[in-house]
């Protein structure tokens, strides 16, 4: 069972107060501020000095989420340097008891390992539908076959298993061979599949017409598979960074490639190494408000048959905080948009902390607030002002003042918690020329791309909101086409964080977790007035949800360390209930790592869960009933159906099961030539 580290909130508050008004050990002496240039020892001149202060509203913020392009390499480098020097501690002091604060998470606690867990797949993807229509068949092909479980039905996603119903491409995960191969299997006779060729790569795959694209660790390869028994490599390109996400839509390949930015040598940026186009600094879009930026994300449209880059657009974000969601119309990138440390400190000191300071100190802080200097310079000056103020107290007086500040800070953090963590959202249109078309901002942090969904011209985004010394909360925001917030539901799952989100038409399902698993049902039919309708609490948590038809949702997760499946009945959205659940005698499933591993077969009313020593087949139409377990030599990783046969793939093996009898039909060792 995942354990969440929970600190003593009073200790957190004490540490933060020490940072806000602490002794600032190690800082330069500094003095009274008469002019910013007289005392601000800032080696990096500020180039965005008109950062507005944070408003007092709980959910709104005055930060302008506008996007611009750099006008020079020097401006790009300066922005990166400022980003690197502005985010160490919330208070900015160097007290020995300092508590490090992650600006995106906004919480002064040790990182929760589960919170930081990322998909183990090489290419980021979404959740929830099946690409294309596997039951429709194709010319000369079978009547039905399954395709990859994806987030948006019209957008295919990279995975280790692909098929066109006649030929199967499977990139094995052989534990004894780090590199592995991609096996090409002839499945024209569903009961007797045979291996006919290999590709010398085992990255995730995309298949379009006669082309297979393989996403290897540091390269992309394109193969002509018009004759699957004689595949031919047609193109290959390097990667200077890594692929954040990829999608296939209407025969076009869309890539989002991330490149770490170096302020010492920022440009040109080469997303595809020496094999692809160069991105000049002046081609990079960036948030006009200073952010924790360190990575350039380049969205590209690529011809999968040739590898030619047809269009591209670049944006500066953060490797640690950028989540990516792709709809049929746009790519949405998120980035940290939290206010600066200096802004937060000045806001607190000049509001809730004001009565605890003397008049001279307040006046100096007010003058500092008006200066057009960098965030780093303001932090230095705040420390100097507060150090001088503290010097007038003896030890007992200082302790008393710090207790008062602790109370004031806790109250301030509770009232303004949605100012501590904010997420900016950038919209890149892909319907036509690639272009940054809108930008917005919401409180909190999305879990990943699963937290977002575009529907009827609106973007829905679920976030976890954190602030130091305050219980976390979870929100859902609805943004219009210009990424302006038009509706919200706030305050779900107090002292918990989001583990999974599923949007189904006009309904959103959100699972939060700390010690129990609250399942929230939200009506988002009216974008301007979304409404939390009901919630249900149960043991364990779900990390993936899949709709089972009207008002029924399947959750896959774990309870006490074991894999768990649960069916939620939301036919009465104000009182959702558990229809049935099952805790497996298995502690791992590939669905935990990638939603692509999930398979549902509606014709036979079953779903497949890969496990550590085989795969589990469950019927779901009337509760949960285990139908069979398909044994494999080691973990089962993927499954697909072809006609009425279930194909289960292990690390380097294929087991074929007849779905009418659930008897094993064929076994194929993929290691054998």
Automatic annotation (TrEMBL):
Domain of life: Archaea
Annotated spans, Disordered: 34-69, 116-146
Biased composition (Acidic residues): 43-63
Biased composition (Gly residues): 125-140
InterPro entries found in the cross-reference section: Beta_propeller_containing (IPR019198), UCP006425_b-propeller (IPR014441)
Pfam family, one: Beta_propel
UniProt name for this protein: Beta-propeller domain-containing protein
Species per Swiss-Prot/TrEMBL record: Natronoglomus mannanivorans
Source lineage: Archaea, Methanobacteriati, Methanobacteriota, Stenosarchaea group, Halobacteria
